[in-house]
Amino acid sequence: MSRPEKRSKVNLFRPKKGHMRDEVLIILAILFGWVVCTFGFQFLVYACRGTGAGSLLTRLTLFNLPLHFWFTGQFLPLWFIFLCIIFNVYVDRITEYHSRKRDRSYE
Amino acid sequence: MNDSSWSIFVVLLVLLSFILVGLRQKARESQEYGFGGRFTGRIGGGAAIASNWMSAASLMGLAGIIYLHGYQGLAYVIGWTGGYVLLLVLLASQIRRFGKFTTPEFVGERYGSRPARLIAAVIAIAISVIYCVAQFKGIGLIFSFMFGVGYEQGVTYGALAVVSYLVISGALGVPRNQQLQYLVICVAFIVPLMWLARRLGYFWVLPQFGYGRALTDLWREFRIDFTLPFAHDSLFQWCALCFTLMVGTGGLPHVLSRFYTVPNVRDARWSVVWGLFFIALVYWSAPAFAVFGRLIEARRGMIPSPEAARAAADVVTLNTAVAAGLPGWLVGVLAAGALSAAFFTVAGLLMTGASSISHDIYYSFLNPRASERARMQVAKGGTLVLAALVLIIALKPPGLIAEITAVAFALAGNTIFPLFLLGIWWDRANRYGAIAGMLTGVLCTVAQPLFGGTFPAVAAFFPLTSSALCGTPLVILVMIAVSLATPPPPEEMRSFLEQEVHGHMD
Fold first, then answer.
1. ipTM score of the complex?
2. Could you give the number of structural domains in chain A?
């Protein structure tokens, strides 16, 4: 008996169940962390200029660097490394989980 | 020997050592591992990614742009590191599973179209040429600095040196030892910086933190504020530049092809983390050179005019080292680091560009029956033509090193990044969408010089160095619209994407 042929579908915003959905979830989470810290922070610095919060961001110092300069120049590259590590650990974990699940289906 | 002879001696020694170590590595490899049996591991893979990435833009351009624009220049630091996050999460594993190593090959296979492949090849070559112009400017500046000659002479000598290296390495078959190269570049950049911090009396063990006090001194003593956010440019310009460099990183052909030298997908992913760490080590250090440079100038009573500062920006690392009285051999070490970064980037890009001319344009499009020998000759001729073209543009460089490099990133971000992104993550993207997207991307990149005069809004939204913030989303929309309006790609390709690229765990 022939089954109706399944239509192939690859879409970042409509991932298939299983490994792909888990992978897309972590991708979106990492991209959220990436956007918020990179561009969100710049918006914050811009929006707060001339206010008390702005003064806090630009006058408070860390390692003798103003907070906003330290955050952008030193913390963000570190944050990117951290995001990559989180992504890799999570993907390693879901890969292991799904490969175990897949192997069992062959039993 | 005087100081400048020492510099030249150290530079020659470093370049020669690369050839010797390469030859030794080649002999050992063929004895111990046989052909292609290179094992690098995650850290080694990371060092290779970092050394492949390091260029004159990282070692000279970055410090120069921060010296000139302060906080605005940090957009380059963030753009050039944050792009790796995009690359890792969206493209790295999937492209590897797709199995096509170069941009034109990927486009040709995924979109099943020879014209699309041809356009992708031309764009990849254009990116290489623009990128090489920036490197040639760096090489020219170092040569003119070392030999005390004019810039034009320096860049001509530099071009001759690069072509000679290509001929020698081609004749001897010298492999590039990228791990060693990264170590040399990193040490050559950071040790002089430590020396500099010590000489100026700052915390020298980690000068990346030590320059904080120099920044405070600069403000306290001379009222020069490096840290003022959005002082010269707007928030939009900062974000546009940063985003452009990020998507450009994700679309740069020679970066994408790095994932194939590591044994498996998992190691490829982890080597990106190490690569990013090694890159960040240099990027945390570059602002320090800029700040120390300004401080030394100010203490000598020199406040350069904007034009003079712009002219000096690209050599600020070398000038600062000399002005602080670093010994000649150490200045030589710094110059050797920057020169080898620029040198090997150019060599790699010229070879890749030439093989693209020979393989993707000549063999695949013009003459499919060409013999191996004819293709080789086209590749060799292509190298010379590309080098000559780059030299002609570099004789009158159109901007700072970092700015020229940014244009290459804008082109990559506007054209290749959307092509890969949709090609991997949306099976409905087809050849018509790809071609329309690439053409739109090229238009977005050159919108400012072409239409900026007539339509000021175009210049505002698509600045030459930062066009991708508006360009990439526009190209993605065009690709989606055109793809939906035209027939879907073949079912085999859609199944391949579903089963091989994304369905490996089903």
1. 0.93
2. 1
Q: Which residue has the tokens 């624009």?
A: B69
Question: B91 to chain A: nearest residue by CA?
Answer: A27
At A66 the three-state DSSP class reads strand
Q: What is the pLDDT of residues B54-101, one digit of tens each?
A: 999 999 999 999 999 999 999 999 999 999 999 999 998 888 888 887
Which residue of B284, B502, B504 to mutate against A (max A Cβ within 10 Å)?
B502
pLDDT in tens, B174-231: 777 888 889 999 999 999 999 999 999 999 999 988 898 999 898 888 888 888 888 7
CB-CB neighbors (< 8 A) of B208 in chain A: 74
Tokens describing residue B73: 């220049």
Cβ distance A58 to B227 less than 8 Å, yes or no, reads: yes
| A11 three-state secondary structure | strand
Tell me the whole-structure pTM to 2 decimals: 0.93
Looking at residue B426, the DSSP 8-state letter turns out to be B
Give dist(CA B44, CA B41) in Å, integer. Answer: 5
Nearest to A73 among B213, B243, B287 (CB): B287
Contact B23, B177 (CB under 8 A): no
Give the span between the Cα atoms of B451 and B474, in whole angstroms. Answer: 17
Per CB-CB distance under 8 Å, the chain B contacts of A97 are none
pLDDT score, position A107: 39
Q: Are B130 and B254 in contact (CB under 8 A)?
A: no
Tell whether A11 is covered by a domain: no
Domain that residue A94 falls in: 20-100
Confirm or reject contact between A51 and chain B (CB < 8 A).
Answer: no
Count of CB contacts below 8 A, A vs B? 146
The number of residues making up chain B comes to: 506
| Closest partner CB to A87 (pick from B89, B280, B503) | B89
Contact B216 A30 (CB under 8 A): no
pLDDT of residue A15: 85
Longest dimension (CA), chain B: 71
**A4 falls within a domain:** no
A2 in any annotated domain: no
Sign of the CA dihedral with A64 first, then A65, A71, and A75 last? negative
From the centroid of its chain, how far is CA B87? 14
Nearest to B235 among A34, A42, A74 (CB): A42
Residue B250 has pLDDT above 90, yes or no: no
**A83 within domain boundaries:** yes
**A95 interfaces chain B, CB cutoff of 8 Å:** yes
